[in-house]
Amino acid sequence: MSGYKRVLLKLSGEALAGGEAFGIHAERVKSLAREVADVAAAGIQIGVVVGGGNIFRGVAAAAHNMDRVTADQMGMLATVINSLAISDALEQIGVPTRVMSAIEMRQVAEPYIRRRAIRHLEKGRICIFAAGTSNPYFSTDTAATLRALEIKADLIAKGTRVDGVYDKDPLKFSGAVRYAVISYLEVLSRGLGVMDATAIAMCRDNRLPVIVFNLNTTGNIMRMSMGEAVGTLIH
Length: 235
Fold this sequence. Notes:
Layout: E1 6-11, H1 26-41, E2 45-50, H2 53-56, H3 60-63, H4 68-92, E3 97-101, E4 110-111, H5 114-122, E5 126-130, H6 140-150, E6 155-160, E7 165-166, E8 178-179, E9 181-182, H7 184-189, H8 197-206, E10 210-214, H9 220-225, E11 232-234
Parallel strand pairs: 1-2, 1-6, 2-5, 3-4, 3-5, 6-10, 9-11
Antiparallel strand pairs: 7-8, 10-11
């Protein structure tokens, strides 16, 4: 394959922690930024959605007895912090970016407007979509799916700690079997926790492919974007 035109890259907040329990690891963010910049330099349009687990985990104990809506709002604000960190790392190596927030905060990010986001992508800017959907009870997986559909991305690429979708957790079970290709229905019926059920169902209903790949292998973002068989394809 010759690669994709437009990709939505979904990163967990933990990907920015660089092996630490929580927080942002500056060198890890820089290395991710360099990989994303290489893909953009190849002419592929990239949108990014990043979770907030690396920051929220630091306050998770305090949030334990919180109202769910308040806790989710804290999580959404954590994604804004991560988005700004990625944006800064990209801008420092000369890559134009725009952080677009679903929660309006004009001093730090543009408000998310679909047509404006598409225009940024067409002009070669990397769009980082922050603050989830702005609604509680929706995960960043669902937010990534929504943004991918809105910007008409060719696929969602979900970077994880493992090299695809397995029948059980490969970090706990040595006999876990990896799927090269799997259907949305199989992911849902087998309860494979690669993305939440809402996100998988949205992808299924709109025929949006998902690639799950190992983010910790250098060069995988480029290989995936160029259409190489990396990780697991869900379609």
